Amino acid sequence: MANISQDPNKFRCPWCLGFEQYVKYHDQEWGVPVYEDKIHFEFLILESAQAGLSWATILKKREGYRKAFADFDYKIVADLPDSYVSELLQDPSIIRNKLKIEAAINNAKHFMEVQSEFGSFSNYIWDFVDGKVIDRQLKTLQNAPATTSESDKLSKDLKKRGFKFLGSTTIYAHMQATGLVNDHLVDCFRYEEVKNLAI
């Protein structure tokens, strides 16, 4: 596997190599099991914005999204007025796509509906993997799926609940990012570290 020059003893999933922000995200966040609703909401916003774009592009704009969407406070986002959508369409620090911006606000409302029904969004989403991290023990990137039966079911259920821009591929990316799935390659130094974080 490829490695990063300033830290040659640590082997990483090669998709993260290219710029330091990506490496930091891989080393500190990607694949860590998430049980906090606010973090789940942050990734849902970022991943829905990513549709058709690279994750590197979204990472570069992450702070812009944090500022634009009230530090990812779903209660505030759910109440954002139409006038604010127009304002965000002029904001170069985020992806200026009206449908994606409107989807973030729409999804915040449904996010809270899920919380009311299940006690937390975390309870809801972890139920799709029976509360346990799926460990694929990937040896190469070519073995990593773009979607799975779990992401298909979750995406379908979210769509039924009114969520938008969260197709199965996007949802599988969410499951990878928030640790419902451990898709670090087995020879990546983070594989065992993340595995040991699972409840």
Automatic annotation (TrEMBL):
<dbReference type="InterPro" id="IPR005019">
    <property type="entry name" value="Adenine_glyco"/>
</dbReference>
<dbReference type="InterPro" id="IPR011257">
    <property type="entry name" value="DNA_glycosylase"/>
</dbReference>
<protein>
    <submittedName>
        <fullName>DNA-3-methyladenine glycosylase I</fullName>
    </submittedName>
</protein>
<dbReference type="Pfam" id="PF03352">
    <property type="entry name" value="Adenine_glyco"/>
</dbReference>
<dbReference type="InterPro" id="IPR052891">
    <property type="entry name" value="DNA-3mA_glycosylase"/>
</dbReference>
